[in-house]
């Protein structure tokens, strides 16, 4: 997959705001022997690529008559608006080994009727070539019961991908729900003693 970009000739807060208003995202391209370069990419095209390829997206960037293979390193979004502020891309080669974090995704968690399914790790670090980076690792918890767990060894890892976590490390477990304390019936609760009430009653009888 490829993304077209243009050289960014103007920098600064004002220029960045203007670019975003025009539907473009400021991009920083760097890495290896490549001179750091400022680019602009179309926001909708980038969003489509991110949706399809995921947070570890590897793709080609076409700019200034050149094509560079890159990996998505980071991006910033506005806190209150669904708008990208900036994107960082790292230049890579096709045969380069990369260390990346792969998300873990639970599958069929709704089938567990008793117990609480807990994902112990959210991501797992792997080393692999750019073209074999998995989008995620799916963990099927169908049939698991209270006390069961799964470890790194249970992951289905594609050829060419090395997991950099010990195989016995737990990634998901099913535990018993915690017992909630019994609620006291408000009607059965003892009424507070009113100081002086008995004294007032005896005085009224006199």
Automatic annotation (TrEMBL):
GO terms for cellular component: cytosolic large ribosomal subunit. Keywords: Ribonucleoprotein, Ribosomal protein, RNA-binding, rRNA-binding. Pfam families: Ribosomal_L25p, Ribosomal_TL5_C. GO terms for biological process: translation. Residues 179-206 have a biased composition (Acidic residues). Belongs to the bacterial ribosomal protein bL25 family. CTC subfamily. This is Large ribosomal subunit protein bL25.
